[in-house]
Amino acid sequence: MSATIYLVRHGRTALNAQGRFRGRQNPPLDDQGYLDAAAPARALMGTGIEAVYASPLRRTMQTAEFVARAANARVHPEPDLIPSCGRELDPSDRSYEQKLILALSHRLPDRRLMAARILGQLRSRGAVPALERLALDGDDPYLQAEAARALQAIDPGNEVAARLAESGPILTRTARRPDAGR
Questions:
Q1: How many domains, in total, are found in the chain?
Q2: Do residues 69 and 109 both lie within one domain?
Q3: Burial bucket for residue 146 (CB in 10 Å: 0-12, 13-18, 19+)
């Protein structure tokens, strides 16, 4: 017997739209999120889905309901699917720092943004090389600015942060001001 498993990411929330980390927070889908949820529902219609499993968080249940309705299936809330962000991590544990450093290369920008922010707050010297790479990556000025802030918090004399403060994108230059971004 074989089974096909489809993985669907939840639709957008207001926090997604702001580039903010959601983790265990429970925001609902926004208007775009409902459109996002309808797309996989249409794509999976007629595929023979028998069950839909989702974390009990509102945004995932709302997305799952779209897919379940299209497939004429039932949604099964599964608490083990709730993100573990912060639940089992201990900041005094060095593996916490390593997980955050790994999160700097996560495919989702909000994960990279939150990891940079926390690493700056922890003053994590081990994160400097990864934060410098992120700060020099010109694809996302918000990520660049957060990485520059983190570098400045860890080492106020960091050359990459200083260079970006002089010639980087406006968000990065503004991030270097003491009153900016907080």
A1: 2
A2: no
A3: buried
Q: What is the CATH number of the domain that holds 18?
A: 3.40.50.1240
- How would you label 34-53 residue by residue, b for 16+ Cβ within 10 Å and e otherwise? eebbbebbeebeeeebeebe
Residue with tokens 């039932």: 74
Residue type, 149: R
pLDDT in tens, 59-103: 999 999 999 999 999 999 988 777 655 444 445 555 667 777 887
Q: Which of 53, 81, 109 is the last residue of a domain?
A: 81
Q: Do the Cβ atoms of 59 and 29 come closer than 8 Å? A: yes
User: Which residue range forms the structural domain that includes residue 26?
Assistant: 14-81
Query: What gap in Å lies between CA 181 and CA 158, rounded to an integer?
Result: 19
Instruction: Name the CA radius of gyration of the chain, rounded.
Output: 20
In a domain, 19, yes or no: yes
Whether 132 contacts 9, CB under 8 Å: no
Q: For residue 2, give the 3-state DSSP assignment.
A: coil
- Judgement on whether residues 69 and 110 belong to the same structural domain of the protein: no
Q: What is the pTM of this model?
A: 0.48
What would the two tokens of residue 67 be? 């897919």
Going by C-alpha positions, the residue among 82, 64, 70, 63 that lies closest to residue 25 is 82
